[in-house]
Amino acid sequence: MPSAARATSPATLPPAGLDGLDPSWSRLVTVPAGGAERVERTWHLLDNAASLEALGVEPVGTVLCVHGNPTWSYLWRRLVAQATEAAAAGRPAWRVVAVDQLDMGFSERTGVERGLPQRVADLAALTAELGLDGPVVTLGHDWGGVVSMGWAVDHPGHLAAVTMLNTAIHQPADEPIPAPLRLTLARGVLGRATVATTGFIDVTLGLAHPALPDTVRAGYRAPYLGAPRRGGVGGFVADIPVDQQHPSRAELDRIAGALRDVTVPSLMLWGPRDPIFGDRYLDDLVDRLPHADVHRFEGAGHMIAEDVDYAAAVLTWLGDRFPEGPGRTSSSGDGRSSSTGGGAAATTAGLPGTAPTTAEEAPGTLQDRPLWSYLDSLADSPEAALIEMVPHGAARGSGARRVSWRLLSRRVHEIALGLRKHGVRPGDRVSLLVQPGADLTAVLYACVRIGAVVVVADAGLGVRGLTRAVRGAWPDHVIGQLPGLTAARALGWPGRVVSTQRLSPVLARSLGVETSLPEIAALGRRAHAAMAELPEPPVAEAPAAILFTSGSTGPAKGVVYRHGQLTALRDALADRYGVGPGTGLVAGFAPFALLGPALGATSVTPDMDVTSPRTLTARAVAAAAEAVDATVVFLSPAALTNVVATADELDEAGRRALAGVSTFLSAGAPVSATLLAAAGDLMPGAVPHTPYGMTEGLLMTDVTLDEVREAAGDPSANGVCVGRPAPTVQVRVAPLDEAGRASDAFSDAVGVTGEIVVSAPHLKHGYDRLWLTDRASVRGVGDTTGVGGAAAGTDASSAGSSGRWHRTGDVGHLDELGRLWVEGRLPHVVTTASGPLTPVAAEQAVESLAGVARAAVVGVGPAGTQQVVVVCEGSPAVRRPGLAAADLAADVRAAVLDAVGHRVAAVLVVPELPTDVRHNSKIDRARLATWAASVLSGGRMRRP
Prior knowledge:
single chain; alpha/beta; Rossmann fold; Luciferase, domain 3; 4 domains; eight-stranded mixed beta sheet; 31 helices
């Protein structure tokens, strides 16, 4: 330990005037030291007990906050303030005690080396002096998280919950500690970086996103203004157990092991940009506390307490888990039940990734036909299960690869057995970095069969988006093709690596590849020959897949599906569109290709770049249709646009192949009647459909081209008609108020505009490690009363036969025929002085004008007084962005006023409207709004 750590000085109160710190919270407490020490020590701590007493309220429990290094109780000032404000507002009162650990902050400088065992004992001595005998919620950050967890495992009778910000509880012996800590611990560096200078403090404070204001930096530095005051900073770093021989290693291992027995409600709030306590430590904590609620704040890092409003998140969680205080059984805000008091076990039912994985471990079985049922029932059939198209759309007999049901069934069985032998276990996460085709299909069904959780993120997210997705899910295994594995290695993606092909030893070592898919299959064949059996099938409640959203409305989110929900999705698609054995399915959207074997259909993905739907041509679709004698075709709107545009390239054979299609589907973004009609011309025997859904729930409603045309004649039309709910789906709206906010009550009243809320058996289970996002998506569950409509009082227990609702983020209304109309996205609602304006109807009116290809309506200015701005993509396209010509601007203003009754402040034109990465069809209105605001305030006229 640096010698300066032995300097002594008494505890003091912080100086007045520190940003955000109320002096009335500070107090000094002298207690007998913990452990083997036989002296008294004086602590500084923040405590709102006096504030609560002045309010005349009794606390329902205590939040015990422990800072890390080199911070102090100042880290928790927002929680102290918000907890006090909440109590003053009549909400449950929480006492917050935020300590300065000895040798840190304004607590006593002891002059004695304090390792982890001593610090845990110190905290226990303090809480005994304070009389904190429960209920206590621990909250820790950095190495304060370890100390707080040490207190938690030692006081089960006092413990109500465990909460934490970025921290770690276990350091694998075969992995180095994070590089910044290794550098600090280097010979000759530790003392200079942590004690002699403020280097360690400055670097830590520099990890905030965005940068901290000078006043806040001064607050953090206040206790450490001289080297004698910084001894504890160096001592804390020196106490990091870098190897098995370190004096604190045994205590760290003790706490880590005991944490697995902690069953009280738990919360982890995480900043993934932390270069020290990254996602691998989060994954370890989730493994030890599988029932925990987890939220990763994209963009936040080590100083998460400054980067985001963690205090509101903690208090919201406490309110959900303990609405009347700890010690009572309560229902959380998302419908989960929790037993919440004094060490009582909290249920893990309903939490992503925590469901039991085998039939012996929990009740509930899969439906009669599990997702892989056709692989068993058609295992002896030589007919094709799927077809892979070679480049340039080669058709049957000219190079297309046919994979029979017999081969696919055997391959799935072999890979499943091989993966088990390789060490893949039920509940393990397996990231699939494989293009659609036979390999991806076989691996996916093999993983599902053995209870592994497949992680699928679209390559269209780009390298940055994929990295965020994969690291966020933190898979145990990665199976990929060479491009994906190269990126995984270069960007440090986690997981044991399997390549889809055999690699040279040199290349395999350079990519960290342990084995290949052919070797896995061979391992499975040997296991089968040795009479090895697959494990019991996973139960319906077991997690099956994490599917990432497109990222078109923010960072891509991992959507968790359980086995029961995937089988319900399969059944919904089969029932609605008659897909089954004998169906030839052309899937220009990868998820539908992967569902082909589950539906018993022969499926094919046409020759295209799946990361860019606009690369799909009419010739490629026709070749794929010919290869499978297609009866069903599914294309994204962006792909369909280019297919229609290249229709003139079709030959007679291609037109004949498309003429055999009986059902055509396009979904993923709004599809115009004109585009659907053009698709109908290409496939004259097909009924064009455009289902409404999202990654969180495919096939919520459905509408045909004829129904779209019928709805277009409705004089009250406002938006895009997406049809009636599917048989097992319920749809409601959460009405908008004057500020454009969605209510927490749900309605099925005719003509009420609000956020669209859906329920179905095939609805997603939740979001992966995004507790706040998941909570927001089900906010208002069960509160469906008081807003009109006979069915508005339907409770959550009957919702879509699933008991779960999902707030889609879309806005729309129901008409008198039960049809749903989509009017736009909730974030894109323009909040004018005369009330909210949903964008779609206005955009449709503008797009009906000559000279306009597409239009976007955005709001510019402060919420509540926003001005309506229309941005048009010209036809023909303009060369550069600018103000619209006077005649076009006048026509646009008249069209919007006539359609929706709002006046337009400005009309702009651009060569092309920006769209999202994956669909290439969803207009990025948020980006346009920012651009329009800049342009109209005098900024440069650049492309948006």
